[in-house]
Amino acid sequence: MAEMIIEFHPITLADRDWMNEKLKEEHPDACEYTFANNFIWAEVYHVQVGCAYGCGVIRSGEEGHFQYSFPFGNGDRRAMIEHLRKICAVHGYSLNIYPVNEEQRSKLIEWFPGEFEICPDRDSFDYVYSVEKLSTLRGKKLHGKRNHISRFMDDGDWHYERMTEETIAACRAMAREWIALRAEKWNDEMEQEMAVLEVAFSNFRELGLCGGVLYKGGRIVAFAIGEPLNEDTFVVHFEKAFPDLQGAYPMINQQFVLHEAQDYSYVNREEDTGDQGLRKAKLSYYPDILLKKYKAVESRVVFANASDWEYIAEIWNRCFGDTREYIALYQENRFENENMYVIYQDGRPVSMASLLPVQVTINGRKENARYVYAVATLPEYREQGYASQLIKHAAERCAEPLLLQPADRDLQRYYERQGFADAFGESPCWIYAGRCVGKADIHVPSSEDGGLRAAEETVREEKPDILGSWLVSDVDAKVYKAVRDQFFDREGYVEWDEKAIVYAIKENQFCGGRTLLLTEDREDQESTKAVLMYRIEKDSLHIMETTLDDNALHAILPELLEYTGASWAYERNMGGMVLLPDRLKDWDCKTGYLGLTLG
């Protein structure tokens, strides 16, 4: 096929028919994919449109910062994207595609493996509800909405009408009154929205919009505007109600759906744009679908996906020596589409780094952070700076603290060159074998010794019932996390979520370990709870983590050693390193607690 020319021009009403035809072929599910929505926001986002290869495409933004829609229509969408990539390359910037749904994400991965970083954008997820739910508000969860509507209907002096050209003037007046009531909270975003609303009013018939108006006491107190999105979904673009009138918002919501959306199965109520008040309001209706939308940007560093896993397992096995079973344990429990970066070379991933979500207490606040884990590059692709590129990209994209625990001093020096600094503190090491010895005498078994990851030795099937004065039982992740958080929580504490704790317990068990809950009952006191995670490495017992203090731990070690058959025990917390974003550069925590560094 000969290459075509794509001529972009500002969207006008003359584009309505061909765009609607192409959008109909696409059966869109995201709220952005209607002609009317793009037309009314055209001035705010500098919307332009073009058509080639049998597809339409929408461009927004300004030169150097253009954002393109995924091509829509039954034409050659891949060829269109290839063409857009060339346009962007000529001008020296990367192709940026938004919004991208799940099907489109899969197509990008299939057509351009390793070439697009595809990130979910939570602030743009659409809230989709069944028409039946919004019409009836049945169920205990929506009892409050029904109560608000009952209060609105108390006096009986209300009615609903379909919006017409004749009632638009009155709706404009209601919108101005609505603005006056929100004067103290007014901002640029509200100003933009009202300008867009005026475009919708002025072109109401031409855009094929549908509206509903709610009256109470003879005056307009709310209105809504929407349109069909596809054969089974109606989309609501605007909803305005007087905030001081109880029940006005839930009432217009319900009445608009009751009167205008009964020919559809679903109602798309658009995104929350990151506004926490709006998010709370939309979630309060319990969406049937939270429509995930992505941003896709050309990038050397991309997220790994499920189809990459065989290559990733090869990198992991060759670089760390772990068994396929161990690697599969990680894949099944921790791998997600957005928590591992890779770099492609020769049509396959050759370098990788996991970024596991954690929280760390910094200056008394819980900050979202990422634990950097399993950084590796195939030997034949080293000395090209791939690991550095992965770390730099993660720091820029996440804008969150990056934490890690280097395996040895050489790696520590490497990460220092990447900007990481010591943090969390390295706890004193000890060995128990009937005597305490100095740090210099410690021998820490490695996987080469057949210990940590090989898991050649396993503990007995049963666990002890009593250790000293402690009753012993199994512990689940929820309880383990609660005990752990209460004990360690302080400045610099790295807190894992329950999903990570689940994996830590499974990983420890896989490696021949046990994770126990210890309960001690004392007279006139509440029972004390502690957790103990350990594993056997040849003839040694490694305390992976515990909330017991040293005295309590040493008191039970003789019994634990006898039970497990180990000759000696040791505990070692190597501390860690941190790379901080600019907003947190002043933080200096040499104490704190990392722990459970497998995530």
Query: Strand portion, in percent?
Result: 25-35%
The low-confidence parts are 435-461
Please identify the structural class as seen in this structure.
alpha+beta
**Number of DSSP helices?**
18
What is the arithmetic mean of pLDDT? 91
Can you put this structure into words, describing what you see?
The protein is of the alpha+beta class and 599 residues long. It is built from 18 helices and 29 strands. Strands 15, 16, 17, 18, 19, 20, 24 and 29 form an eight-stranded mixed sheet that branches. It has a seven-stranded mixed sheet with strand order 8-9-10-11-12-7-13, sandwiched between helices. The protein has a seven-stranded mixed sheet with strand order 21-28-27-26-25-23-22. Helix 12 packs across helix 13 and helix 16 packs across helix 17. The protein starts with 8 loop residues before the first strand and ends in a 20-residue tail after the last strand.
How are the elements arranged and paired?
Layout: E1 9-10, H1 16-26, H2 35-40, H3 42-45, E2 48-52, E3 55-60, E4 67-68, H4 77-91, E5 96-100, H5 102-111, E6 116-120, E7 126-130, H6 131-136, H7 143-153, E8 158-162, H8 165-181, H9 188-202, E9 210-216, E10 219-230, E11 233-241, H10 248-260, E12 266-268, H11 276-283, E13 289-291, E14 294-298, E15 301-303, H12 309-320, H13 324-333, E16 340-345, E17 348-362, E18 365-377, H14 386-398, E19 402-404, H15 409-417, E20 421-423, E21 430-432, E22 466-467, E23 470-474, H16 477-488, E24 494-495, H17 498-510, E25 513-520, E26 528-537, E27 540-546, H18 550-564, E28 568-571, E29 576-579
Helix pairs in contact: 12-13, 13-17, 16-17
